[in-house]
């Protein structure tokens, strides 16, 4: 046999790497030309072998023809086939053919996979990177790398979709597993035992789990496109606690030491609190989950509502200190018994042991803390444990996607897999959580609730300490160190901009600002992308138009009602800050904000403006910034809204004399700019908006645009909104509007940054009926 070996793998290795014994040494009578054909077929280098079976067949044909001409008779092709059937020749010939077939198959297979990697995989990887689909790009790249490991284009793509990181733990020797953050049902991928060096991960956010004998298991997250507090770029360090070293049911958060500027993070990464002074904080242990009904029932059953020793903070209401007996009479359930407002007969619904307690005031939460020997966290300590990264607009979508903002009610603690960096769950959504700090007579309450917009996860809120609505809950902390605690517990003073002493710019100056918003009405270049006519109440058209700037496209959704007659009144919707979460609009349209318009018989135009959804840009928060990038983005937003209305003019089923603007929260705050720059709006509705309290460029400052709004305006607000406070934000916007007094109206609800949907719908539709007329 030409290739020797005691195992099949050894034979295959020799076929690939060893030179075979010459055929004539095995079969001396084989013609030299045939031996040459076999030698060429068995060459190791691809370029030395036949390029195809057809080429080899051609040489065999020539050999047959030559032998026939010589009339040799013995070695024409049929004779040759008879010869190789002889036992002496059959075995080596078969091995030659097997080797030839194997090499041919291997070569063709490698060539095909190499072509796939270069021609298919590399373009797909580049496309996925452009869509920020780093995990998918990474998976394709790993497959392609097995075929083209040294390809220069692939080498350039690696850092655009992945990062090489180190993972360390104290103590070392912990088993580390990860999975994509949003893959809550996905399998965990074992990475090895710490310390782990130079491991490549796709860019993105991952859940991470560390397990070591004798230590508390550690859950958290790992972001491969950022870094952890106090660790160099690309290094992730985790501290494991000995079993039993922190109170049961808590996780330890390590203290911090300013300054943090080198690490690119804020002390508290919550919008509205991120400008607070940096503090040094000691270690503390915070509840892994929100306080549950079962835990709170222990306080109720221990007659906690009747023991003044647990209620150590004076009850202050409307400037008056209430006696204990008078105050606690307000803290009763739906049957008048002591307990949360959502309970009955001092008890919670059967089967809800592990649901978070909700409907408790700040005073009740603080009293429970005293009862349990713990405390409410300060805003500093809560924010550090939640540790929303500065790139919350980029990765915050991952966090809220696996958190409870369902609008359907609270869920058992830990059911949703939104985990924080130190192992806490449900800090985003489920119930919003009372914190210690006083803020202008109110108390901080952070994280957002199941019945609120997901953007409230990253926005500060403060409410009356007597507030007991559904969705209000808490968790507690144990301070392992007093370092920084007095400063962190101090009252928080929100940023205040005094609009009582501010004035809009003159008309001459405003004309200069107005010129910045001008655009050329060029061809819209409309592309219809999809039409969905399957819904019961509306037909949805998705299209795109050419932007007024650059070479960009503006996606637009147009909803046409099925219950009404054209020409339709149309509402132009501007998204709340949930649109800044950098997720595709297709999967995150805010239908809850607009469905009632369509069901009432009106059309809705929903443009995806610059900076929102898949068109994300420099904006990472809805709060204004004194930068040129912020100014330019707002101007482009206005251009997009106006271009979208240009498109409406091409639709004969739209009544262009009955056009309304509707904005919620961020969309409402942008309202004065959008409406002042677009004369085709006949009316506007601003829900949960107001003047920002932060400074920004005068060219995009609402105070300069509100007086130029002339159409009728309805404002719907929460009286206790801390993001846009009534006195310092809402009332100034309403007062500055240039709308005649008889045509502007503000409706206040006894809520925070939310409005009861049934009342909102009534007020809104009544307003449209008044100024656009009833729907046909």
How is this structure best described in words?
The strands form six sheets. The protein has a nine-stranded mixed beta sheet with strand order 17-18-19-21-20-22-23-24-25, with helices on both faces. A four-stranded antiparallel beta sheet has the order 3-2-5-6, with no helix packed on it. It has a four-stranded mixed beta sheet with strand order 14-13-12-15. The longest helix is centred in the N-terminal third of the chain and has 44 residues, at 87-130. Helix content is 31%, strand content 18%. The protein is globular and about 120 Å long. It contains 22 helices and 25 strands. Helix 3 (32-41) runs antiparallel to helix 4 (53-69) and helix 6 runs antiparallel to helix 7 (134-145). With 776 residues, the chain is of the alpha/beta class. It folds into four domains: 8-111, no CATH class; 156-245, Sandwich (Immunoglobulin-like); 287-488, paralog of FGE (formylglycine-generating enzyme); 507-771, Rossmann fold (3-Layer(aba) Sandwich).
Task: Considering the chains and any ligands shown, give keywords for the structure.
paralog of FGE (formylglycine-generating enzyme); 4 domains; nine-stranded mixed β-sheet; alpha/beta; four-stranded antiparallel β-sheet; 25 strands; 776 residues; globular
Rg, Cα atoms, Å? 35 Å
Total strands: 25
Q: Give the number of domains.
A: 4
Seen as an oligomer or otherwise, the chain set is single chain
Structural class: alpha/beta
Mean pLDDT: 86
CATH superfamily of the largest domain: Alpha/Beta hydrolase fold, catalytic domain
Largest sheet: 9 strands, mixed
The unreliable regions are: 72-77, 227-232, 259-267, 389-394
CATH-assigned fold name of the largest domain: Rossmann fold
Estimate the strand proportion: 15-25%
CATH architecture of the largest domain, by name, is 3-Layer(aba) Sandwich
Determine the fraction of residues in helical runs and give it as a percent range: 25-40%
């Amino acid at each position: 046999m030409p290739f020797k070996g005691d195992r099949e793998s050894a034979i295959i290795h020799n076929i690939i790497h060893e030179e075979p014994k010459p055929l004539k040494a095995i079969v001396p009578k084989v013609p030299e030309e045939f031996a040459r054909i076999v030698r060429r077929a068995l060459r190791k280098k691809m370029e030395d072998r036949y390029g195809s079976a057809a080429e080899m067949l051609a040489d065999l044909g020539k050999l047959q023809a030559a032998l026939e001409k010589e009339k040799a008779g013995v070695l024409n092709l049929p004779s040759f086939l008879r010869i190789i059937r002889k036992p002496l020749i059959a075995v080596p010939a078969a091995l030659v053919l097997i080797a030839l077939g194997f090499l041919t198959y291997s070569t063709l297979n490698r060539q095909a996979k190499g072509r796939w990697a270069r021609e298919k995989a590399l373009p797909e990887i580049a496309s996925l990177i452009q869509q920020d689909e780093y995990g998918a790009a990474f998976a394709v790249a790993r497959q392609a790398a097995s075929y083209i490991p040294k390809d220069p284009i692939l080498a350039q793509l690696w850092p655009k979709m992945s990062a090489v990181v180190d993972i360390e733990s104290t103590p070392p020797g912990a088993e580390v597993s990860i999975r994509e953050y949003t893959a809550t049902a996905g399998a965990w991928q074992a990475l090895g035992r710490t310390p782990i060096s130079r491991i490549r991960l796709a860019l993105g956010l991952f859940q991470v789990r560390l397990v070591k004998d004798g230590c508390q298991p550690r859950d958290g997250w790992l972001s491969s496109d950022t870094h952890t507090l106090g660790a160099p770029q690309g290094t992730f360090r985790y501290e494991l606690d000995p079993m039993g070293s922190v109170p049961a049911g808590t996780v330890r958060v390590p203290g911090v030491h300013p300054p943090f500027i080198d690490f690119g993070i804020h002390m508290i990464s919550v919008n509205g609190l991120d400008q607070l002074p940096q503090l040094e904080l000691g270690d503390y242990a915070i509840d892994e989950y929100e306080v549950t009904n079962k835990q709170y029932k222990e306080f109720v059953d221990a007659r906690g509502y009747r023991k003044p020793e647990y209620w150590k903070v004076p009850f202050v209401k409307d400037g008056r200190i209430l006696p204990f007996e008078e105050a606690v009479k307000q803290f009763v359930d739906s049957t008048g018994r002591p307990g949360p407002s959502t309970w009955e007969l001092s008890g919670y619904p059967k089967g809800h042991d592990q649901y978070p307690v909700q409907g408790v005031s700040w005073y009740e939460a603080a009293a429970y803390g005293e009862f349990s020997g713990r405390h409410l966290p300060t805003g500093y300590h809560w924010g550090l444990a939640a540790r929303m990264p500065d790139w919350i607009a980029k990765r915050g979508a991952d966090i809220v996607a696996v958190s409870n903002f369902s609008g359907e009610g609270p869920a058992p603690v830990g059911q949703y897999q939104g985990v924080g960096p130190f192992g806490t769950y449900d800090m985003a959504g489920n119930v919003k959580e009372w914190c210690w700090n006083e803020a202008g007579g109110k108390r901080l309450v952070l994280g957002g609730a199941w019945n609120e917009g997901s953007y409230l996860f990253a926005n500060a809120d403060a409410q009356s300490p007597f507030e007991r609505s559904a969705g209000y809950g808490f968790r507690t902390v144990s301070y392992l160190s007093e370092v920084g605690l007095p400063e962190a517990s101090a009252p928080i003073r929100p940023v205040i901009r005094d609009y009582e002493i501010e004035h809009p710019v003159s008309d001459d100056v405003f004309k200069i600002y107005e010129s910045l918003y001008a655009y050329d009405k060029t061809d819209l270049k409309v592309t219809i992308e999809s039409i969905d006519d399957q819904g019961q109440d509306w037909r949805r058209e998705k299209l795109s138009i050419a932007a007024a700037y650059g070479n960009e496209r503006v996606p637009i959704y147009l909803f046409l009602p099925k219950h009404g007659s054209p020409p339709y009144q149309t509402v132009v919707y501007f998204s709340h800050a949930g649109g800044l979460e950098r997720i595709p609009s297709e999967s995150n349209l805010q239908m809850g904000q607009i469905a009632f318009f369509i069901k009432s018989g009106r059309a809705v135009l929903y443009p995806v403006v610059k900076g929102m959804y898949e068109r994300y840009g420099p904006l990472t928060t809805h709060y204004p910034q004194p930068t040129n990038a912020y100014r330019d983005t707002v101007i482009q937003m206005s251009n997009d809204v106006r271009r979208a209305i240009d498109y409406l003019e091409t639709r004969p089923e739209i009544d262009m004399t009955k056009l309304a603007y509707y904005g919620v929260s961020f969309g409402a705050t942008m309202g004065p700019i959008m409406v002042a720059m677009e004369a085709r709006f006949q009316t506007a509705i601003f829900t949960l908006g107001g003047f920002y309290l932060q400074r920004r460029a005068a060219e995009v400052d609402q105070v300069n645009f509100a007086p130029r709004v002339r159409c009728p305006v309805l404002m719907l607000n929460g009286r206790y909104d801390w993001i846009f406070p009534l006195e310092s934000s809402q009332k100034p916007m309403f007062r500055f509007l240039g709308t005649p007094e008889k045509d502007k109206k503000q409706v206040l609800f006894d809520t925070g940054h939310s409005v009861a949907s049934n009342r909102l719908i009534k007020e809104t539709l009544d307003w449209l009926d008044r100024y656009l007329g009833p729907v046909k």
